[in-house]
Write a structure and sequence with these properties.
The complex is a heterodimer of chains A (127) and B (607).
Chain A (H helix, E strand, L loop, with lengths): L8 H24 L18 H19 L15 H10 L1 E2 L3 E2 L8 H13 L4
Antiparallel strand pairs in A: 1-2
Chain B lengths: L6 H16 L6 H5 L20 E2 L12 E8 L12 E3 L2 E5 L5 E5 L5 E5 L21 E3 L2 E5 L4 E6 L5 E6 L14 E3 L2 E4 L11 E6 L5 E6 L29 E3 L4 E5 L20 E6 L5 E6 L15 E7 L2 E9 L4 E6 L5 E6 L7 E4 L6 E3 L12 E4 L13 E3 L4 E5 L4 E6 L17 E6 L7 E7 L4 E8 L8 E3 L3 E5 L4 E6 L5 E6 L9 E5 L2 E8 L16 E7 L48
Parallel strand pairs in B: 1-32
Antiparallel strand pairs in B: 2-38, 3-4, 4-5, 5-6, 7-8, 8-9, 9-10, 11-12, 12-13, 13-14, 15-16, 16-17, 17-18, 19-20, 20-21, 21-22, 23-24, 25-28, 26-27, 27-30, 28-29, 30-31, 32-33, 33-34, 34-35, 36-37, 37-38
Chain lengths: 127, 607
């Protein structure tokens, strides 16, 4: 429920590797079956619709996301996001450099916490 | 014999300039104290400790300003977050800070890089930036250049080489702290403030021994339990009360007082911290040797609008109502212009600059305390309150003012935009434990249909009236500079670097630099030529409202482009080692397959 302690940073950082490994394995399976990685092969958020996760996710959103993704909105409006669950997880954990930088939150958020935030933004139209 | 001018040769010529810089002398504290007539240098953030940014140069003047042309352009590269800095100049070398807390030493005549420094701030630190990776400049003292970093380090570099002499982790950035302001070198110390008013910090100014990096004193601008003013905070709200000190102070060597302006109170939702919240949104006067708070003045007590008071204060001796006064002048996010007595912090006068200020009905004429309009304070869980004038971007934010002591006129930007504020229910936010956002509120920026959003104002300090105002369809986001010849330099969001007639505000020169001017111009004279430097590059809060165009260039201007020609061939090129060897150069072939007949046969015995 609470942000990862610093001692858990290594675990958090290991998750992108695990996620990519999982995706790679799916990719290998898809390649062996002779096709591209399909959307249904990607990770999906197991906490979607979970009321406890949504409540925890709102708390995390207000503490970690609001200053860039709500007021002011420098990053995309997460309540209108159309990227896949796995892409959401990956971007939040690893960060992304574009016109503005999305910092890597993997140091302070566990993947489950990112799923909570994701569950929250998927459950609502706005903050 | 034909000499081949190799790229390596050009590189060593450029390094030779560094060797010249290495022989440059130290910056003495007395040089800064007595720097008023030093027209070839800009040794401190505001040039002089009084914050006036007034330069006694007259070569560029109202009759020839239209002939200003670029001399050179220096690209700072990087992520192009924008240039909010004031460049410093010492013995023909410019010291410029850029985004990501990077520092450049640049030959002031040619625009050639001498060295650069990158503190390599971790990407993850970005989660404690409210407003982008900004840096407003470096400090110089002795043989060192000082810079604060986005991950809250203070770094001292060797001025000649850019190598780190010492560095100090000022405070744990993971608790929400960054450093975005230029440090201030005072006596044998270097002072820095901190940013993080949106992340539940407790603001302070810290002084370090400039030579060794040893800590000298820390001045918390929010008093702790038992200290005067702590009772203006309910309970333990003082612990995360904000009061960030994210710009640079001014200094009066005679009074021995350092004046530092303080940021918004935290969280934005003021309902959880009812009280004056000293000394946020104000000015503190610190004893320079001990850091003790000698006096404080709040422009916005019980700040309910994110009204950081941070534009660097301007000190001057001015006659007001027939009396000579030692004053401190300040234009605030909250829309008012203030004149205080800088010896004791007493209020002299204040005046509204932004038309239609509505968070306050005026100022108490004796104390300067705002007469607050309670209708413009939001309620927790209540509806949006709008339009609040000015917005949290301010009339002015951190940008420097400029003051001409001969005329008593002060120049500054003063935007008119408004905002809406909506406070969350109080069970929706809690005190941060790991430098998380601590707002408790949403905000929305608005333009006003009745007024152009941008304004640049000239205010007559002794006569207490506005002299002129230059409006713009874009908000201003740049600092000001004034010269003895009667020119005011600033820039706008269209990217125009401009010179204005100081008496009328008429633009006499504009140059389209390609990106908003978000930093501060400086001017100096070298070899009989007066240069004006403009940083050009959108960054900071501008990125909340605009995406393009970005640049990150430092541009030097002079009349008719300055000296007839610059040395040929110096282009700041960084060659990838080993990518361009000579034909047949030892160790750089693909295996001895250089063809004969081209006049450059591979030497025997080499691959």
């Amino acid at each position: 429920m609470y942000p990862a302690e610093r001692s858990e940073r290594r675990r958090a950082l290991a998750w992108p590797a695990v996620g990519l490994l999982a995706a790679a394995l799916f990719g290998v399976a898809a390649a062996l079956s002779g096709g591209p990685v399909r959307a249904q092969d990607e990770l999906t958020n197991p906490l979607l619709g979970d009321p406890e996760a949504i409540e925890a996710g709102e708390n995390l959103f207000r503490r970690r996301c609001v200053g860039c993704h709500w007021a002011p909105k420098r990053g995309p409006n997460l309540f209108e996001s159309e990227i896949s669950d796995e892409k959401f997880l990956e971007v939040v954990i690893n960060g992304r450099k574009r016109s503005l930088t999305m910092p890597p939150f993997g140091y302070v958020l566990s993947p489950d916490e990112v799923w909570q935030i994701h569950a929250f933004v998927k459950a609502r139209d706005r903050l | 014999m034909r000499t081949m001018l190799t790229i390596a040769g050009l590189a060593s010529a450029a390094r030779a300039l560094g060797i010249v810089a290495a022989e440059a002398g130290p910056v003495a504290y007395d040089d800064i104290v007595n720097g008023q007539d030093n027209t070839s240098e800009w040794l401190s953030y505001s040039r002089t400790y009084d914050g006036q940014r007034f330069v006694p140069l007259t070569q560029i003047n109202p009759t020839n300003a239209h002939r200003l042309q670029p001399v050179w352009i220096f690209p700072t590269g990087g992520e192009n977050r924008g240039l909010e800095a004031t460049p410093l100049v010492h013995e023909g070398v410019i010291y410029m800070a850029a985004d990501e807390s990077r520092v450049f030493a640049i030959d002031a005549r040619t625009g050639v890089k001498i060295w650069s420094y990158d503190p390599e701030v971790a990407e993850e630190a970005e989660r404690v930036y409210c407003c982008g990776s900004n840096n407003r400049g470096v400090a110089l003292l002795d043989d060192k250049v000082f810079v604060g970093t986005m991950d809250a380090r203070l770094v001292a570099l060797d001025k000649a080489t850019g190598k780190v002499a010492w560095e100090s982790q000022v405070i744990d950035w993971q608790q929400g702290y960054s450093i975005t302001g230029a440090p201030l070198a005072v006596k044998d110390m270097v002072l820095t403030g901190v940013a993080g008013g949106e992340f539940g910090i407790r603001g302070f100014v810290k002084a370090y021994d400039a030579e060794t990096g040893a800590e000298r004193w820390t001045a918390y601008v929010i008093p702790g339990p038992g200290e005067p003013g702590n009772d203006s905070w309910p309970g333990d709200t003082w612990e995360h009360g904000g009061g960030s000190t994210w710009t640079t102070g001014a200094f009066d060597p005679e009074l021995n007082l350092v004046y530092w302006n303080t940021g918004n109170a935290g969280p934005w939702n003021c309902q959880v911290r009812k009280g004056d919240n000293k000394w946020t949104a104000g000015t503190v006067a610190l004893d320079a040797d001990s850091g003790e708070i000698k006096w404080g003045f709040q422009y916005t007590p019980w700040d309910c609008w994110d009204y950081d008071a941070v534009s660097t204060p301007v000190l001057a001796d001015v006659a007001i109502d027939g009396q000579d006064r030692k004053v401190l002048m300040h234009h605030d996010k909250n829309g008012f212009f203030y004149v205080l007595d800088r010896a004791d912090g007493s209020f002299i006068y204040g005046a509204p600059i932004v038309p239609g200020i509505n968070w306050a009905k005026g100022l108490d004429p004796e104390t300067g305390r705002p007469i607050v309009n309670e209708e413009m304070i939001a309620a927790s869980g209540g509806p949006e309150v709008a339009p609040i004038i000015p917005s949290l971007e301010g009339a002015i934010d951190w940008q420097p003012l400029a003051f001409n002591p001969n005329t008593g006129i002060i120049y500054f930007m003063s935007n008119t935009w408004a905002m809406g504020y909506k406070f969350w229910e109080e069970d929706k936010f809690e005190k941060p434990t790991q430098g998380e956002w601590y707002l408790g509120a949403d905000y929305q920026q608005y333009l006003r249909p009745d007024l152009p959003v941008g304004a640049f104002v000239a205010w007559d300090v002794p006569n207490q009236r506005e002299l002129w105002r230059l409006t713009n369809d874009q908000p201003f986001w740049a600092g000001a500079l004034v010269t003895e010849s009667g020119l005011v330099f600033t820039g706008d969001n269209h990217g125009y670097a401009m010179a204005l007639d100081a008496h009328t505000g008429t633009p006499l020169w504009r140059f389209r630099t390609g990106s908003p001017i978000a930093g501060s111009p400086v001017t100096y004279e070298l070899d009989g030529v007066q240069y004006v430097l403009f940083p050009s590059g959108m960054g900071g809060d501008l990125t909340f409202y605009y995406t393009e165009p970005k640049a990150g260039n430092l541009i030097a201007f002079a009349i008719d482009g300055g000296p007839a020609r610059l040395p040929v061939g110096q282009a700041n090129l960084e060659v990838i080692p080993g990518s361009l060897p000579m034909v047949g150069e030892a160790g750089h072939t693909l295996g001895g397959r250089v063809m004969e007949g081209y006049g450059y046969p591979a030497k025997e015995g080499q691959e």
